[in-house]
Amino acid sequence: MEAVDAGLAKAALRKALRTARRTHVASIEPRVKALMFSRPPSPLSALVPQGAVIGLYHAGEEEAPATRYACFFHEDGHAIALPWFEARGARMQFRRWASPHLDELLCPDPYGSRQPPADAELLVPEILFVPLVGFTDTGARLGQGGGHYDRWLAAHPHVPAIGIAWDSQLTKALPTETHDRPLTAVVTPTRIYGPF
Questions:
Q1: N or C end of the chain: smaller count of CB under 10 Å?
Q2: Cα(54)–Cα(35) distance, rounded to whole angstroms?
Q3: How many CA atoms lie within 13 A of 79 on its CB side?
């Protein structure tokens, strides 16, 4: 019963936070938005070992953008990996994004986003930057609801997960379940939360 209650609470909170995120993103002047998330702040870069495989995501319209982080780490000599799905409902894997400067190297994925082609090298990220709908100042994360990142992180418990978010996505508390894994840190346009 508790899992059902937490699931319902998460669904309601997800809806409210998506609405707040949409309003927030729409209020940002485009030239200002273009300057945000241009490179990871120094304390965040310090969490990334030299040469580590970096897992990122191809952001949706209202998600905090991750492409400039991908470019930064790629230019610093890191391999960049994006989520890859064989089909809807398939487990999430990661494949190499040959060059974050070339979006045309990506293909449509089963969920309406973009992913590397099926012949791109399979990689296992050593640091994972994750999208989110909401987060707390203690590192709790509310994702999209598909559970892809939860399952991947459960299978790779040693991999630090860092959230990228808009400031409006901060919330005081989130309902949590046993499979929910706290983030190592969260970065927004104005501050870093953590490392926790």
A1: N
A2: 22
A3: 13
C-beta atoms surrounding 195 within 10 Å: 15
- The answer to whether 131 touches 161, Cβ cutoff 8 Å, is no
- Which residues, 6 or more positions from 137, have their beta carbon under 8 angstroms from its beta carbon? 170, 193
Look at the block and give the residue holding tokens 């997800």: 14
Kindly report the CA angle at 129 between 7 and 111, in degrees rounded to 5?
A: 60
Q: Report how far residue 13's alpha carbon sits from residue 22's, in angstroms, rounded to the nearest whole number.
A: 14
Count, residues in the chain: 196
What pTM value is reported for the model? 0.91
What whole-number distance in Å separates Cα of residue 152 and Cα of residue 193? 23
Burial class from Cβ neighbours inside 10 Å (0-12, 13-18, 19+) for residue 170 reads middle
Mean pLDDT of each 10-residue bin along the chain, 196 residues long: 67 92 94 89 90 95 93 96 96 95 87 94 98 96 91 96 96 86 94 93
Residues 6+ away with beta carbon under 8 Å from 26: none
